[in-house]
């Protein structure tokens, strides 16, 4: 962490745990370490008095039926079969980072966390102006959500070691070259100090 990274005001902050779902974690190497880090980040934000939001991608039958044939998303979902069906156990948020009562939980049918959800309204109701993002995949939900969050004028942090991508080179490129234009890049170990816990 550099000296230029600002501290975080926990009551005005939400940690978004994005697409930490069984089916997506199963396809990643190092999933255990990723889950350990995410669980620690959640615990730190809770302890500091921040908000936790969970985002998952999952499709009910009507969502699938409404997707046009021209959508590349439809083709991507088709290759996963039923693993991302809204009722499938494989589409659930992993039990090691499961939501608790009072957490925000949204289900989306596109890539970004704000798309097809009421997430923005729920964050606004809590007075949140700062987002801490972590998710799978770096080139998917994290990239889309950073762009959208920046356009919505949130202050954005990305927890680099709580994000992962099927292509590690793409992950490193985005974290090192692209995301710093719109977000502060931090690690799980940085969070206690930033949150005022140390």
Please write out the topology.
Elements: E1 13-18, H1 22-26, H2 31-48, E2 51-57, H3 61-66, H4 72-79, E3 104-108, H5 119-125, E4 130-135, H6 138-151, E5 155-159, H7 168-178, E6 184-186, H8 191-194
Parallel strand pairs: 1-2, 1-4, 2-3, 4-5, 5-6
Quick recap of the structure?
The chain has helices at 22-26, 31-48, 61-66, 72-79, 119-125, 138-151, 168-178, 191-194; strands at 13-18, 51-57, 104-108, 130-135, 155-159, 184-186. With 198 residues, it is of the alpha/beta class. The chain has a single domain, classed as 3-Layer(aba) Sandwich (Rossmann fold), CATH 3.40.50.
What do you see in this structure?
The chain is α/β, with parallel strands linked by helices. It has a single domain, classed as Isochorismatase-like (Rossmann fold), CATH 3.40.50. The protein is 37% helix and 16% strand. The protein contains eight helices and six strands; from the N terminus they run βααβααβαβαβαβα. It has helices at residues 22-26, 31-48, 61-66, 72-79, 119-125, 138-151, 168-178, 191-194, and strands spanning 13-18, 51-57, 104-108, 130-135, 155-159, 184-186. A six-stranded parallel beta sheet has the order 3-2-1-4-5-6, sandwiched between helices.
């Amino acid at each position: 962490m550099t000296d230029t990274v600002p501290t975080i005001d926990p009551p005005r902050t939400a940690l978004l745990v994005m697409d930490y779902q069984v089916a997506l974690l199963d396809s990643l190497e190092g999933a255990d370490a990723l889950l350990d880090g995410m669980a620690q980040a959640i615990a730190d934000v809770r302890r500091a008095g921040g908000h936790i939001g969970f985002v998952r991608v999952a499709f009910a039958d009507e969502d699938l039926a409404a997707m046009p044939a021209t959508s590349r998303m439809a083709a991507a979902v088709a290759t996963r079969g039923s693993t991302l069906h809204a009722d499938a156990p494989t589409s659930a948020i992993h039990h090691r980072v499961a939501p608790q009562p009072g957490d925000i939980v949204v289900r989306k049918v596109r890539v970004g966390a704000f798309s097809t959800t009421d997430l923005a309204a729920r964050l606004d109701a809590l007075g949140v102006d700062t987002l801490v993002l972590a998710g799978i995949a770096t080139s998917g939900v994290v990239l889309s959500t950073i762009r959208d969050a920046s356009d919505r004028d949130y202050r954005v942090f990305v927890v680099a070691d709580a994000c992962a991508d099927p292509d590690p080179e793409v992950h490193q490129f985005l974290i090192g070259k692209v995301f710093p234009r719109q977000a502060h890049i931090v690690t799980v170990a940085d969070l206690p100090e930033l949150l005022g816990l140390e």
